[in-house]
Amino acid sequence: MRKEYDFSEARKNPYSKILKHQITIRIELDVIDYFKELSRSTGIPYQNLINLYLKDCVDSHRTLSLKWAS
Question: What is the mean pLDDT of the chain?
Answer without folding.
Answer: 92
